[in-house]
Amino acid sequence: xxxxxxxxxxxxxxxxxxxxxxxxxxxxxxxxxxxxxxxxxxxxxxxxxxxxxxxxxxxxxxxxxxxxxxxxxxxxxxxxxxxxxxxxxxxxxxxxxxxxxxxxxxxxxxxxxxxxxxxxxxxxxxxxxxxxxxxxxxxxxxxxxxxxxxxxxxxxxxxxxxxxxxxxxxxxxxxxxxxxxxxxxxxxxxxxxxxxxxxxxxxxxxxxxxxxxxxxxxxxxxxxxxxxxxxxxxxxxxxxxxx
Amino acid sequence: xxxxxxxxxxxxxxxxxxxxxxxxxxxxxxxxxxxxxxxxxxxxxxxxxxxxxxxxxxxxxxxxxxxxxxxxxxxxxxxxxxxxxxxxxxxxxxxxxxxxxxxxxxxxxxxxxxxxxxxxxxxxxxxxxxxxxxxxxxxxxxxxxxxxxxxxxxxxxxxxxxxxxxxxxxxxxxxxxxxxxxxxxxxxxxxxxxxxxxxxxxxxxxxxxxxxxxxxxxxxxxxxxxxxxxxxxxxxxxxxxxxxxxxxxxxxxxxxxxxxxxxxxxxxxxxxxxxxxxxxxxxxxxxxxxxxxxxxxxxxx
Lengths: 243, 301
Known about the structure:
The structure holds two protein chains of two kinds.
Chain A: H1 3-9, E1 16-25, E2 34-42, E3 46-50, H2 57-64, E4 72-77, E5 80-81, H3 90-94, E6 97-101, H4 112-121, H5 127-140, H6 156-168, E7 174-178, H7 186-201, E8 205-209, H8 213-219, E9 222-227, E10 230-235
Parallel strand pairs in A: 3-8, 3-9, 6-7, 7-8
Antiparallel strand pairs in A: 1-2, 1-4, 4-5, 9-10
Chain B: H1 2-21, H2 23-60, E1 62-67, H3 73-83, E2 89-95, H4 97-107, E3 125-130, H5 137-147, E4 153-157, H6 160-202, H7 204-212, H8 217-262, H9 272-294
Antiparallel strand pairs in B: 1-3, 1-4, 2-3
């Protein structure tokens, strides 16, 4: 199914790539990581999630790629209800979502090209084709000359670029990034955020969790500020900052 | 089809990588299976050889009916004719008194013993060769029952007691082999299951990443099943090699003991089917062990 078709197939759910309705998540009875959260992110929108540690940013992202299930409420991601999603349907959803983590989550035994190709191989893309596409992505993130290197021989910034390439190799409809620049210095932060931002310009819905204010100011995108698991503030994109 | 091939290739690569990435634990699993199969296979080899003795004996199995002294040749022929119609008898041969004496002279060193005797003390007999389907202790008993007590027959000679005793011994060894095989198989299963479980824990990060990029449950699990099966099959192949080594090297030393159980039948090793069965048994143990390891395990999602 092409990306255009996938968009069309979920057209019945309107423009929302992500919708949450009164979502709560509790790990310990009586305390909430997220509490009565209702929000919507439209297709192609670029949104920052911000807030201090423990505000619920990571929990929300985990709910969006079905690593966790909500304790209460409903979550629609690309038209699928996460609260009722069967375990067997999770892989199919994840193939439509790219995820980038602060700690990169790369397989050290594989070359960076194979790391990027992994997302294609799990859906049965022939190895040669997967590698060719991985190479194109590595080229986009400027690492084509290091295709046969292993992650541990790369700097933190380079590893994050590989992780972004892997997240984008399946042309996902949603890109989630959890503190993608948390381990990087300011120059690399801009480099990485530019790469993520460029995905948004190609129509991908992007949700980035960060508490880096310089990033928020530089890109001027819609910012959802979480506090104690609730939406404390939802600031629209500043003029010119909209994707 | 291309996708399926690509997925299968990827699963196989991943499964084999598992063995390469943990050589020590893999070797332990392979050796455990090999040891279990060497012991079980050794017994199977013994049973197979002993069954060979029974088969060989069966081919030569016959019932000899000794005839009354004074029975005329015409009556003997008539009796021989009627014995040939007994169910389970393939052919009959009448041995006259003269023939019996001739045979005795030819086959016995003590032919001189006969010089001092007057006349021919040897009785005429009818040799009954059993049909192939009847060459078992039970089949032999049926023929013996049908022939004994017939007018003109004084005595029957056959190896029924020996055959029954030997068959019981073979059954006993077979039961022992199965019991030992089961115990060893369970032990091997546990070790393979634990090896695979360790591999699962060791690669939890990897599994998490694969799940993250959309790998299905089977895509994550099948490599572990492949890993267990390959380890088991290698263990089976090692067992065949070890058994063959022992067979070749120890046979001369065991010749006397083997002669006691096998008589003059020369021992044989497993053929291609037997050897492949042992390899397949190893593969099966490995597959089952890894399936046990994955039971109840929920991959990190």
